[in-house]
């Protein structure tokens, strides 16, 4: 794992197809693979990379924009599937956030060309709990609004869905200052308000993808 090109293994796995000329059905298919478990069965061989990233062995990936993005994916996305239901799922969130913030400062985020690369680059700002979480979420919502404005008309339902997810997460952080669904996993007591929220069993990260453009638009509602 010492090669400067090691990050390509992750990047090619996470972005296996070029969606730039694809219709909306292909975009929904990839979103489902990324966000709703399709990726989980293929992740176990990547587990050693998570441990290597957490110990700093992959820090050289930060030298290039796609390398940094690949490291962010290893620290932010891979643990959520590999260690689901355990504290390890969230234990590298702060490391991923630091990598992302550094890349905002040195231009790596701006150098990414794919909207999906930028989407996954932003997720540590969404996922990492902390005192500045609300400020970060507000920033993510603003970026998602711009992404929607810039999206081709045929693909706007995809980015409407993304914007709705960002706005919902912003609302949760504004209300609770954290993600209450993590409380049982992390051994945190829930407040009465959080218990009411948890009882509804309607969590943004488990919501189904829209089945049509009209339902994506109505979800913004």
From TrEMBL:
<dbReference type="InterPro" id="IPR011990">
    <property type="entry name" value="TPR-like_helical_dom_sf"/>
</dbReference>
<dbReference type="InterPro" id="IPR010323">
    <property type="entry name" value="DUF924"/>
</dbReference>
<dbReference type="Pfam" id="PF06041">
    <property type="entry name" value="DUF924"/>
</dbReference>
<protein>
    <submittedName>
        <fullName>DUF924 domain-containing protein</fullName>
    </submittedName>
</protein>
């Amino acid at each position: 794992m010492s090669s400067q090109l090691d990050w390509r293994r992750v990047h090619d796995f996470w972005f296996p197809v070029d969606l730039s000329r694809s219709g909306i059905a292909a975009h929904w298919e990839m979103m489902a693979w990324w966000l709703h478990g399709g990726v989980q069965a293929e992740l176990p061989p990547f587990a050693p990379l998570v441990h290597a990233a957490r110990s700093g062995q992959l820090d050289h990936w930060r030298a290039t924009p796609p390398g940094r993005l690949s490291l962010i994916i290893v620290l932010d996305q891979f643990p959520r599937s590999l260690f689901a239901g355990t504290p390890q799922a969230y234990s590298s969130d702060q490391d991923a956030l630091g990598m992302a913030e550094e890349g905002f400062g040195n231009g790596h985020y701006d150098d990414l060309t794919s909207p999906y690369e930028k989407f996954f680059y932003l997720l540590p700002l969404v996922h990492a709990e902390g005192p500045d979480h609300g400020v970060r979420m507000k920033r993510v919502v603003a970026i998602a609004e711009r992404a929607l404005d810039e999206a081709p008309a045929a693909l706007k339902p995809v980015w409407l869905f993304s914007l709705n997810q960002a706005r919902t997460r912003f609302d949760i952080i504004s209300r609770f200052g954290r993600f209450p669904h993590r409380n049982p996993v992390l051994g945190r007591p829930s407040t009465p308000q959080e218990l009411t929220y948890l009882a509804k069993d309607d969590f943004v990260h488990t919501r189904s993808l829209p089945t049509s453009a009209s339902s994506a638009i109505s979800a913004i509602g």
